[in-house]
Write a structure and sequence with these properties.
alpha/beta; Rossmann fold; 6 strands
Length: 137
């Protein structure tokens, strides 16, 4: 049997963290949950996940800054940003990083599994609503 990918979840909202964990638990092994950017970096070292699923807005170091640092340190790590922010500058900053995907929380049910599949296969992914926004501009 194929090994399920291991995920570290970084989300500071307990309600959202619970929903994401339920959504992910069927197809992935959620190895840990952290609630701030500093904890992401120490958890990556101790838990060695395949993918970091992180919010952007969090206490301390934000998820984007933590991911930038983590991707330099862990060359096999994949990152899926899951956020309410659809600002083009944030999307562009995430897009410039290797091995990433960008999902809006409103799209998580459909988009999060697709984003995980994409990053695990080495492809960029963005929520359809972000793609539509960019097409309209």
């Amino acid at each position: 049997m194929e090994r399920k990918p291991r995920l570290l979840l970084a989300e500071d909202s307990p309600v959202m963290a619970r929903q994401l964990r339920l959504l992910l638990a069927q197809d992935y092994v959620v190895v840990g949950l952290v609630t701030d950017g500093e904890s992401i970096l120490s958890a990556l070292e101790s838990l060695a996940p395949d993918v970091l699923v992180t919010d952007i807005s969090m206490p301390g170091i934000d998820g984007l800054a933590a991911a930038e640092q983590a991707l330099r340190t862990y060359p096999d790590l994949r990152v899926v940003f899951i956020t309410v922010h659809d600002e083009p500058s944030l999307v562009a900053r995430a897009r410039a990083l290797p091995r990433t995907a960008y999902v809006l929380k409103a799209d998580a049910g459909d988009a999060l599994p697709a984003a995980l599949d994409a990053v695990l296969a080495g492809r960029w992914y963005a929520s359809a609503s972000i793609t539509r926004e960019k097409v309209r501009k």
